[in-house]
């Protein structure tokens, strides 16, 4: 698993939340994106609802795989989407309600690889303190309105599996995350 990022200052590192796709992403009008999918739509230059090679800045998109789970971008941890065979990211997100390791998969869609297979992708709303994972209603307190009906109707409860939603989810450097919603796309 990895986080979708864009090294906006070109220094080879992910320095802060503005280089992640989430609520710290600034839109053209100066406001901030409401979630990771809204942030990704900024890069959909041909407005077809997908991020593909047909979009102007697609080649600048990277996957950050925090191999040593230290929450910092080390050499060799930023990869081009093509390195993993990713050819398309679907921006038509649906409200999610799954909680994994205390983190809400708030919006979900899929990505497609070169072999034509589709895989799950999510806007993950990270818990502030995974050791003391909040109840679902606490996670949903700041969620967009479109998420609430789906989440509440499923009766979702925190996951009991030990699988992490992402490499580095537990130990990610909190300085990288925006201070409010803590939501980022995970593929």
Secondary-structure map with pairings?
Layout: E1 3-6, H1 36-41, E2 50-51, E3 61-64, E4 78-80, E5 86-90, E6 94-95, E7 99-100, E8 103-113, E9 118-125, H2 136-140, H3 148-154, E10 183-186
Antiparallel strand pairs: 1-3, 2-5, 3-4, 5-8, 6-8, 7-8, 8-9, 9-10
Q: What is the mean pLDDT?
A: 78
Question: How many separate domains?
Answer: 1
List the helices and strands in order: EHEEEEEEEEHHE
Biggest β-sheet strands, sense, barrel: 7 strands, antiparallel
Low-confidence stretches: 132-136, 146-182
Distinct helical segment count: 3
Helicity level: under 10%
In short:
This protein is mostly beta strands.
Structure commentary:
This protein is mainly β and 187 residues long. Helix content is 10%, strand content 24%. It has one domain (3-186). The chain contains 3 helices and 10 strands; from the N terminus they run βαββββββββααβ. The strands form 2 sheets. Strands 2, 5, 6, 7, 8, 9 and 10 form a 7-stranded antiparallel beta sheet that branches. The chain has a 3-stranded antiparallel beta sheet with strand order 1-3-4, with no helix packed on it. The longest helix is centred in the last third of the chain and has 7 residues, at 148-154. It is globular. Mean pLDDT is 78; it is low at 132-136 and 146-182.
């Amino acid at each position: 698993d990895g986080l979708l990022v864009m090294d906006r200052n070109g220094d080879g590192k992910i320095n802060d939340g503005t280089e992640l796709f989430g609520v710290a992403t600034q839109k053209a009008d100066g406001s901030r994106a409401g979630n990771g999918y809204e942030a990704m739509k900024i890069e959909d230059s041909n407005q077809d609802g997908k991020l593909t090679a047909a979009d102007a800045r697609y080649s600048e998109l990277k996957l950050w795989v925090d191999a040593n789970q230290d929450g910092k971008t080390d050499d060799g941890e930023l990869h081009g989407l093509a390195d993993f065979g990713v050819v398309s990211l679907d921006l038509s997100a649906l409200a999610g309600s799954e909680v994994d390791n205390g983190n809400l998969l708030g919006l979900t869609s899929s990505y497609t690889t070169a072999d034509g297979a589709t895989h799950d992708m999510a806007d993950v709303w990270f818990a502030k303190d995974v050791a003391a994972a909040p109840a679902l209603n606490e996670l949903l307190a700041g969620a967009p309105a479109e998420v609430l009906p789906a989440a509440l109707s499923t009766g979702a409860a925190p996951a009991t599996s030990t699988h992490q939603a992402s490499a580095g989810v537990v130990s990610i450097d909190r300085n990288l995350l925006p201070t409010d919603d803590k939501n980022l796309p995970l593929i």
